[in-house]
Amino acid sequence: MWRLGLAQDHRDGLLVVTVDGRIGSAEAPRLTALLTDAIAAGNRRILLDLKGVDYISSAGVIALEAAAARLWTDQGELTLSGVTPPVRLALELAGFPPDVPVL
Predict the structure, then answer these.
(1) What pLDDT was estimated at residue 100?
(2) Angle at the Cα of 79 (from 76 to 82), degrees rounded to 5?
């Protein structure tokens, strides 16, 4: 099983989630749960730092899309930063929503 590290830090009304490792189908539910819980707790601005991620499966993309959709409904915003080339390619091929900022 691939390792997936998740860390959270609150900065001036922004929740920064640092993700490290590989987001495969076995680990995507952990990311989904973290994001779902964070949104349920009232976080409306979430930045996902993905600079430590070198792979994302379709299950991982679905987790990000679900969080983006939920935040959009709640007038919030999901931003992705540090997106590595393999992850960017997977997001583009999956048709990741273009209104989600990818830095």
Answers:
(1) 84
(2) 165
